[in-house]
């Protein structure tokens, strides 16, 4: 069964399409009429804990039925083609689910055999995949003695061993230190660039997806908040950030410039003082090229040095700012009404 979905992704092909997909548990609505299309490449599925990410993945794998709506993965209907989807899709679950008493090699060979690979091919693919994720001599030791990072690599390897077209990675950076996190994000990127496998990766950390993903889908309280290319999220704004030096004549240069600019009719915004050093940064709305000249002249007249004048870029996290209060209310209502 094929349903018409509006294709909005960057290469014009849809690998995942959902239409008004809902999942209701007795006390909570985990997914709420979610309609989204995902194309090839690396896509981040981002949302706070409880936003509905794992629930969506389980429905897409055909492991959990939706309450309403429908979804297709690689053109296959999740309600009736779960087994065919799981043949073509790899899945790295969020939680630790590895047997402690077997080695990575034994475990991944077993998973390859479960996926239908013959014994020799299973062993060869396992060796290749474990090398790709960076597990070498350790692959013969029992998993129980592995670090969190090594366990995450084993989970990633078993998701890749049967050469899928698409992988779902549920919070693959969970529990990793910054170095381990960077290494895992690099591996994820290479899954697509080296092997052409598309990736849907979930995270509750917004920043890391900016660097890793081509496309980002943001969910909150089971609803779609936004779906767009990463570059659209991080596009430049009309806000200019200005930083100046202090002098003996103007010990608070920032304040002097703020007053000078306001006197010239330039709208100066209040910087977010919660950020370290934010008090030394002036934010103002650029009205056009002439705003740059006004700032330059004001700083020069005061005899201050201009340290920085740059257009700010959006951060993905800003997508949450406006909707937080509304969604908190919606979450409370969902729980309260036992929907
Ligand atoms: N089997 C279930 N029974 C009842 N409620 C569930 C079940 N599975 C998930 N939920 C609830 O559905 C909501 C969404 O959960 P889900 O695990 O999909 O979120 P998530 O975005 O993956 O967050 P996390 O990373 O914390 O798992 C949560 O409120 C969760 O408690």
Automatic annotation (TrEMBL):
Biased-composition ranges for Basic and acidic residues? 328-339
Q: Which GO terms describe its molecular function?
A: ATP binding; ATP hydrolysis activity
Going by the UniProt record, its keywords in alphabetical order are: ATP-binding, Nucleotide-binding, Transport
Classify the source by domain of life: Bacteria
Keyword Protein transport assigned: no
InterPro entries per the record? Answer: AAA+_ATPase (IPR003593), ABC_transporter-like_ATP-bd (IPR003439), P-loop_NTPase (IPR027417)
Q: Which SUPFAM superfamilies match?
A: P-loop containing nucleoside triphosphate hydrolases
Q: Where is this region: Disordered?
A: 320-339
Alphabetized Pfam families for the sequence = ABC_tran
Name all ABC transporter domain ranges.
16-246
Q: Which PANTHER family match?
A: ABC TRANSPORTER, ATP-BINDING PROTEIN (PTHR43335)
Family affiliation: Belongs to the ABC transporter superfamily.
- The protein's name: ABC transporter ATP-binding protein
């Amino acid at each position: 069964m094929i349903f018409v979905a509006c294709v909005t992704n960057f290469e014009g092909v849809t690998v995942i399409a959902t239409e008004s997909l809902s999942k209701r548990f007795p006390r909570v609505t985990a997914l709420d009429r979610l309609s989204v299309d995902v194309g090839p490449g690396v896509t981040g599925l981002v949302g706070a804990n409880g936003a509905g990410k794992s629930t969506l993945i389980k429905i897409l794998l055909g492991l959990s039925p939706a309450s309403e709506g429908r979804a297709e993965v690689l053109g296959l209907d999740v309600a009736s083609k779960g087994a065919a989807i799981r043949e073509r899709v790899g899945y790295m679950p969020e939680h630790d689910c590895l047997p402690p008493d077997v080695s990575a090699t034994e475990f991944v060979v077993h998973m390859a055999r479960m996926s239908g690979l013959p014994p020799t091919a299973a062993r060869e693919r396992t060796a290749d995949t474990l090398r790709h994720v960076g597990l070498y001599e350790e692959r013969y030791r029992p998993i129980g003695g592995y670090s969190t990072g090594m366990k995450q690599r084993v989970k990633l390897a078993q998701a890749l061993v049967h050469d899928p077209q698409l992988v779902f990675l549920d919070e693959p950076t969970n529990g990793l230190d910054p170095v381990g996190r960077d290494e895992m994000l690099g591996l994820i990127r290479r899954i697509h660039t080296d092997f052409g496998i598309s990736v849907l990766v979930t995270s509750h950390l917004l920043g890391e997806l900016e660097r890793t993903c081509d496309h980002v889908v943001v969910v909150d309280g089971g609803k779609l908040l936004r779906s767009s290319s990463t570059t659209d999220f991080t596009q430049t704004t009309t806000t200019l950030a200005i930083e100046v030096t202090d002098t003996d004549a103007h010990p608070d240069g920032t304040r002097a410039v703020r007053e000078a600019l306001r006197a010239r009719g330039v709208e100066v915004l209040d910087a977010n003082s919660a950020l370290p050093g934010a008090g030394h940064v002036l934010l103002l709305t650029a009205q056009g090229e002439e705003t740059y000249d006004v700032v330059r002249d004001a700083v020069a007249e005061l005899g201050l040095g201009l340290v920085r004048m740059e257009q700010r870029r959006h951060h993905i996290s800003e997508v949450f700012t406006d909707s937080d209060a509304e969604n908190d209310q919606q979450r409370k209502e969902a729980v309260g009404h036992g929907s």
